[in-house]
Amino acid sequence: MTAVAHIPGPAPDLPGLINRAATMLAGAKTAAEVLEAREVAGLAYDTAKRAARLSRAKSAHDDLIAAAHRAQADALEIEAAAKRRLADEYDAAQARGEVAKRGWESGVDKHNITTSAELGLRRDQIHEARRLRDAEAAEPGLVRRTLDAKLERGEEPTRSAVRRAAEDRLQRSLERLQRVQESVQRLEETRPPPLTPEQRARQIAVFGTQEDRAIHERLVEIVERIDEQPSPAEAVRRIPPASRHAVEIAPMRRAAAWLTDFTTLYEQEVQNGTDASE
After folding, report:
1. Which one of 19, 36, 82, 235 is least enclosed by Cβ atoms within 10 Å?
2. CB-CB contact of 191 with 104 (8 Å)
3. Exposure pattern of 229-252 as b/e (b: 16+ CB <10 Å)?
4. What is the distance between the alpha carbons of residues 200 and 193, in angstroms, rounded to a whole number?
5. Cβ proximity of 76 and 147 under 8 Å
6. Three-state secondary structure call for residue 58
7. For residue 142, what are the CA distances in angstroms to 81, 147, 212?
8. Coiled-coil stretches, from where to where (predicted)?
9. pLDDT in tens for each of the 278 residues of the chain?
10. In angstroms, rounded to a whole number, what is the distance separating the alpha carbons of residues 185 and 200?
């Protein structure tokens, strides 16, 4: 990341400023370019804010004040988007070791690492940018809806309104997370104690192990698959000539013999109530 460059030239008209900010942000490739777009959007917001105040002071027509408010909202939306991009760029630069992290660890090489102050950014600005990004990620369109709600009520869209909306959204997320944690804690508190070895043994004696139950599930699947087949005569007729060399009779006979033995032993066990294999 590099420090933001000075914006040269006189300030253009308000629509031109807003269009310029939007174009700069859309084409921004570096953090410095994102910062420049944010500065232009901020300038457009301040210009629109002054225009609205002058219109009110001169008792101008409501349409003029509403137009100034719409310009404020558009500038704020671009500025908020630039701040979100800035948060991403700043965090990525920190992850790459290009920007200093808060709380240096001993032994860290500080050479060739930029600080937020050297970039012209205060920590509260970085914090606000991250909160805006996280709030918009949690509720896409939050900023625009907040601004539109202000416009619909005939109120002035402000940075404070956007900031409050982001804070409220994050607070709701924290409260939801807290409720989830409390629910998990209640479940943990009401969870029955682990089984004793004796209880575990009785459970296995009745329900078997996971592998024991898997034997039954595989048998059910085998029967279902066989039931899906046509009659043996039709199945023989429908085996394509090109596939007949791949049909192995011996494994099928072993499978049929296994099923025959299983059904015989199982019927004996059910009838006698004992392990028929003993």
Report:
1. 235
2. no
3. eeeeeeeeeeeeeeeeeeeeeeee
4. 12
5. yes
6. coil
7. 11, 9, 53
8. 163-190
9. 544 433 333 334 888 889 999 999 999 988 888 889 999 999 999 999 888 888 777 776 778 888 889 999 999 999 999 999 999 988 888 888 887 776 544 444 555 567 777 777 788 888 999 999 999 999 999 999 999 999 999 999 999 999 999 999 999 999 999 999 999 888 888 888 888 999 889 989 999 999 999 999 999 999 999 999 999 999 999 999 999 899 999 999 999 999 999 999 999 888 876 554 44
10. 25
Q: How many whole angstroms separate alpha carbon 85 and alpha carbon 25?
A: 9
CA atoms within a 13 Å half-sphere pointing along the CA-CB vector of 21 = 28
Tokens 């629910």 sit on residue:
183
Distance CA 41, CA 25 (A): 9
CA-based nearest residue to 91, from 144, 131, 37, 120:
131
Number of C-beta neighbours around residue 27 at 10 A: 9
Structure tokens at 271: 């009838």
The pair of structure tokens assigned to 196 is 């004793």
State both tokens at 152: 């619909």
Residue with tokens 């860290």: 108
Burial 2-23, CB ≥16 within 10 A → b, else e: eebeeeeeeeeebeebbbbbbe
List, in sequence order, the alpha helices (H) in the chain.
14-26, 31-57, 62-95, 123-138, 142-152, 159-190, 197-207, 210-227, 232-238, 249-272
